[in-house]
Amino acid sequence: MNDYTGATTIANGATLALSGQGRVNQSSDVQVDGTFDVSNASSAQINNLSGHGNVALGSNYLQINNAAGTFSGVISGMAA
Predict the structure, then answer these.
(1) Of 47, 49, 50, 58, nearest to 18 (Cα)?
(2) How buried is residue 72: exposed, middle or buried, by Cβ count under 10 Å (0-12/13-18/19+)?
(3) What are the residue ranges spanned by the domains of the chain?
């Protein structure tokens, strides 16, 4: 059980890679200025996406529950 609820910031040059059941769906916002890699996650969900970095989907999907942010980066992968 992950009780983490704050905002998540992925800085320029940094990578947050989720795998298996790893998730940040309780995070209020995911600010991606580096790389957010969900290619090995089993059901990636976030509440909000913002920033100008890279989202790597692989063959997976990323569910965004509250699309209130502004994301001007690149979303790549077969599911993009």
Answers:
(1) 58
(2) exposed
(3) 8-67
Which residues pair with residue 50 across a beta bridge? 31
Report how far residue 17's alpha carbon sits from residue 78's, in angstroms, rounded to the nearest whole number: 17
Q: Any idea which residue has 């995070």 for tokens? A: 27
Predicted TM-score (pTM) of the model is 0.88
If you search the block for the tokens 């990578």, which residue do you land on? 15
d(CA 30, CA 25): 9
pLDDT at residue 78, as a whole number: 82
- Residue 53 and residue 73 in contact, taking contact as beta carbons nearer than 8 Å: yes
Say whether pLDDT at 2 is over 80: no
